[in-house]
Structures are given as structure tokens and as C-alpha cells.
Amino acid sequence: MTAPTTIPRDAVLLIVDVQQGMDRYAEQYHRNNPDLEANIGRLQRAWRETGRPIIHVQHLSKEPDSPLRPGQAGVEFKDEVRPLPGEPVIQKSVSSAFIGTSLEAELRRRGVDTLVVVGMQTNMCVSTTARMAGNLGFTTYVVSDATATFDNTGPDGKLYASTLLHDVALADLHGEFSTVVDTATVLSLAS
Questions:
Q1: Which tens digit of pLDDT belongs to each residue from 136-158?
Q2: How much is the pTM?
Q3: What 3 state SS string does 48-86 have?
């Protein structure tokens, strides 16, 4: 994949799982990228100012102990990136925003072929969604400094740092499923 020269006017900013319950994980596991919310906010402002479409993705967990389970405060969007009235919200219960949702049909109905993906967690829902988007034929950008994840423990008990997991997830996505860019690049190409 080559570096982008412009972001189309109809490119969707897809904001994945930036919900209050993620803070509970941050209390237990270190999160990389403390600038996540600020960078997504910058992208949201640019998208709104230029009339580009935004779609919010909300995870509704089926796990009994999850802070993202419906009926709990944690399922709500973080204030810094809260949807405005009229901005669509896609609700999902698995890692991909395409499985069991109307996302693909909505994008096809609108004639959209480009997604700019941001949110939580880089190596989980962001990655799964970006991989499927690429496989479905969408031109997909993942914004490196508008995504984040947490430390995680492997099956052998080894702790993997959030920065490592984030960087490896982006490396796996770049060139195969998406083009990885940063917020400043997206803003310069979407003006």
C-alpha cells in the first residue's frame, strides 16, 4: 500500500469502543498512548468541520464481569469523544464491528469505500475491525496515535507491555490490511 495523498470527503471516521469502562482496565493494566482521547477529539473536530461522516462503535459485552456490559456506567462513551445527535452508533458484542451489525450494509448503502479507524484496543477490536475492512475491500487507515491498548499476559505467564503490543499490532496491519498513519498526517490530508 502506498502513502495516501488525500482523504476522500466521504471517508468515515470509525471510532471503536472508546468507552468509560476501559478506564477500569487502565487501573489494572498499563495503557499506552495517554493522548488517545485528545487525538480522537482532534479528528472528530476536523471531520465535523468538513462535514465528513463519523460512526461510533460501542461494545456491549456478554461477559458477566465486563465493565462494558449493558446496564453499567462503563458501557457509555467517554465524554471526550461522545457522539453528537445524529451521528450513528453501531453496537457490537464481538471484536469486529462488522460481525452481527449493520456496518457493512450502511457503508455500502452510502457508497463509502474509505475508513479511518481509531479507538480501543489496538491489538483487539481495532485490529479485528481493520482486518475485516481490508478483506471486505475498503481502503482502510489506522491512526497510530489515536489507538491504544493495555499490557497483557501470554499463555506462558509472561507480561507483554502495552507499547509492544500496540506497535506489533500496527506492524501486522500496515501494508496488508490497512495503511498506518498518525493524526497529523490524517489532518493534513483531510483539510
A1: 999 999 999 999 999 999 999 99
A2: 0.95
A3: HHHCCCEEEEEECCCCCCCCCCCCCHHHCECHHHCCCCC
Residue 127 CB-density burial (10 A; 0-12 exposed, 13-18 middle, 19+ buried): buried
Q: Where are the domains of the chain?
A: 12-189
What the block records as the C-alpha cell of 68 is 462494558
Q: Judging by beta carbons within 10 Å of its beta carbon (0-12, 13-18, 19+), is residue 144 exposed, middle or buried?
A: buried
Q: Residue 117 in contact with residue 129, Cβ under 8 Å?
A: yes
Q: Are 140 and 177 within 8 A, CB to CB?
A: yes
Alpha carbons within 13 A on the beta-carbon side of 14: 30
According to CATH, the superfamily of the domain at 12-189 is Isochorismatase-like (3.40.50.850)
Q: Which amino acid is at 69?
A: R
| Marked catalytic residue, from 116, 125, 126, 165 | 125
- Annotated active-site residue 125? The verdict is yes
* 3 state DSSP class of 169: helix
Q: Note the pLDDT tens digit of each residue in 72-97.
A: 899 999 999 999 999 999 999 999 99
SS3 category, 177? coil
